[in-house]
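Support case: user asked for a sample of complex input and structure output to validate their parser. Sending the pair below.
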Amino acid sequence: MDTISLKDRTAIVGIGQTKFGKGFTQSEEALGCEAIKMALDDAGLKASEVNGLVSYMMQTAEEDEITGALGLGDLTYFTRTPSGGGGAAATVGQAAMAIATGQADVVVAWRSRKRSAAASRVWMQTQPRVVHLREMWTTPWGVLRPADHVAMLFRRYMHLYDATREHLANIATAFRAHANRNPAALMYDKPMTRDDYMNARLISDPLCLFDCCLETDAALAVVLVSAERAKDLKQKPAYIHAIAQGVTSGSTMMANFFVDDPLHSQANPCAESLWRQSDIKAKDIKVAQMYDAFSPEILMCLEAYGFCGKGEAAAFTENGNIQLGGKLPINTGGGGLSECYIHGFNMINEGVKQIRGTSTSQVDDADNCFVCASDLNPTGAFILRR
Amino acid sequence: MPVGPILPATDDPDSAGFWAATREGKFVVQKCGGCGELRFPPRPFCKYCQSNDFSWHPVSGRGRIWSFAIAHKPVYPALADFAPFPIVIVELEEKPTLRISGNVLAAPGAAINSVDPAKLRIGQPVHVTFQQVAEDVVLPQWLLTPPPGAA
Ligand SMILES: [Zn+2]
């Protein structure tokens, strides 16, 4: 059977983002509508032209609320991707597939979340008795918070590969420096030194406060259309060159201790699929946006997607390599650690800004950009190009 | 607002046998009736041979620390008084890819913060002890195994 190639057939033509903040009074629905409207205005498209809608699970706003409130068109494609931060990049993939296969013409991918309130603490969602595999065999012993899961995996990584907290400091300070150039970032006016990092309070040793993402209230959205349509719109298109999803068999969200090798990244099958489809290879990538709910995820992604070899990611963060001006600038908006944390959707918008040449930490000649979701979940990734 | 400890359901059909065993002070894993492979945590099918036939197989209760972390505040409210406390993943002696979460205790029945975290190392031998936390819930917990010949 002939398969349909998605290569360069669709493009992101509009982006929108609300203010990033804490304690917002608007609903997730209202925030979502605001971001979607901004993305449509940015693209020069009418709300009534939208006939596809993609988001991910774990939010309160429903499709009917969004279409009704904003006056979107009748939908012919809608879906949600699973696994929290693992679902971000896959929304763009679902939108691209819907357009390339004729299911819809104008598709919005979006995310609205209010995470800054105490109600977002993981234990507020915990049931009195736990049944699911990843909860039953972790939470009764206090292995409970995502930070605990990542701390456990990173301690093992340190043991195997001589990584240290200094390497995590390379990541946290690089992203903070990017945020300090981005007026929209929550940490725009808060510089962080290496000493600040090393002296921060521990959350789950070996992880400290600055290894953990910012709980944020915000919404973001992007609009996709076909490559042909994109040429007639007002923004420089960010073409979807390749997209992929993947998860290793048996892997579970975050608390992935029960597979044969928990340090074999869940993102490996996604990476394999992505590079198989892409003419642009890891060595050609100019700038990357990688999901960073926790700093060690950058190490896992660098290795899973072949930007360096297994066990080499800690060294890769040295010498300013991942900072603007370095070999592979990562999270040029500040990332989840220092821009905002909306389950990784800000990586998508920042990737588009790099392709347009409008990032506040613009990489010279960024004719491509790699974007990925969490490698500690069922995940997705894509490559944007000019 | 939840207040008590987080407890496992002990009547889930896939894992009820495990919790029945811990109530009797035994550590068991599943043994596949099709191919004989051991598996843990409990699952309804065997990933090697797709059989759903199994028996509960007693294991030694010895293992090693696969990794650990020290949970600092803010933690789950019922555990706040114990923070910071160590949390561990233990790999079982019979098959190191079988792992379980736990806490290392200074002595049977001691608190989850009773061991100095500085004493913990990856690869360190541990052995099981049992801690009753609810009428129907007995959790496996871990004690550091002294090196051979130590007093
Ligand atoms: Zn079997």
